[in-house]
Design goal:
12% strand; 55% helix; single chain; 296 residues; 5 strands; 2 domains; 5-stranded antiparallel beta sheet; Beta-Lactamase; alpha+beta
Length: 296
């Protein structure tokens, strides 16, 4: 609990007691000087209200402290879970690299490595989803929160933004992706496009898309399904945007601007290895000079 809240509570209790002793009690005494019963009743009522209000403040502060502690424990748990998932990804990627070393370029081994790297990219997106699902899915009023995590980057085929990987409870591809074939401009007005255009890329958090006039829908009614979202820039080794990792849900005010520090720390755990993997995939495709088929 912040120190200033504790100080304010103590100051409130002292000031209210002082107010009664110096100001209120003499007034009550002079007003009810001929009726000791009414004076005692008024004095009792004042002290009852004062003690009651102090008790309410005390329980409020206690509940606030417990709530904050629960939130902090939950956040530490989800960060630990996220690091564990990334550690697993690292081991698998290391095994894949060692199994298909590219001392010189060979199409067969490069193709195997490309498939393995693309799979590991999906594993990172799924890890992000699993972290959200396992720690936050049923935390608001007992109702289940449906999360969707997607990974967006420029297509190596037509150059337009596209959805590279995704994860959700339905295991179905996102609705907007059905409109993507033959339409490289589909995502040009999305927040991901805005992040790519930023001079200094930064995460965008939208508390409630229905209250944000700048949020552009890809399909009609998208805002009803995506109510709260964070769009996080994925950087390569040159600090250039290479993709975005997008987390959203149908519950408004789940991702909040006031919690930017935590959400940025959480998404960065997955975004960093995802950026390295994306750069490696792009490198392999470029080295193949048309031999390998780009995965997106």
């Amino acid at each position: 609990m912040p120190r200033w809240i504790r100080i304010a509570a103590k100051a409130y209790a002292v000031s209210l007691a002082t107010l009664f002793l110096i100001v209120v009690e003499p007034i009550l005494q002079s007003y009810f000087e001929k009726d000791t019963f009414l004076y005692a009743l008024a004095k009792f009522t004042f002290w009852f209200i004062w003690i009651g209000s102090i008790t309410l403040v005390y329980f409020f502060l206690q509940e606030y402290r417990r709530t904050r502690e629960d939130i902090e424990r939950q956040r530490k748990a989800v960060l630990s879970f996220a690091h564990e998932r990334v550690d697993r990804w690292f081991v698998r990627s290391l095994v894949a690299e060692r199994a298909t070393p590219l001392v010189r370029y060979e199409a067969s081994s490069a193709g195997e490595l490309l498939a393995s790297l693309y799979k590991s990219l999906f594993l990172l997106v799924e890890g992000t989803y699993e972290a959200l699902e396992s720690h936050f899915a049923s935390k608001v009023d007992g109702e289940r929160i449906e999360f969707v995590v997607s990974y967006m980057s420029h297509s190596m085929i037509d150059g337009g933004l596209t959805m590279v990987a995704w994860a959700s409870s339905t295991h179905r591809s996102p609705r907007s992706l059905r409109q993507r074939p033959g339409n490289p401009q589909l995502y040009n007005k999305t927040v991901t496009a805005e992040v790519y255009a930023m001079p200094r890329p930064n995460a965008v958090i939208i508390d409630d898309t229905l209250k944000d006039d700048t949020y552009a829908e890809v399909y009609s009614g998208q805002r009803k399904h995506i109510r709260s979202t964070i769009i996080y820039p994925v950087l390569d080794e040159s600090n250039e945007v290479i993709a975005t990792l997008v987390c959203h849900c149908g519950t408004p005010n789940f991702f909040k601007e006031e919690d930017r520090k935590f959400w940025s720390e959480f998404v960065e755990i997955f975004a960093r290895p995802a950026g390295l993997t994306t750069a490696r995939i792009q490198q392999l495709v470029a080295q193949s000079k048309g031999v390998l088929t780009p995965p997106w």
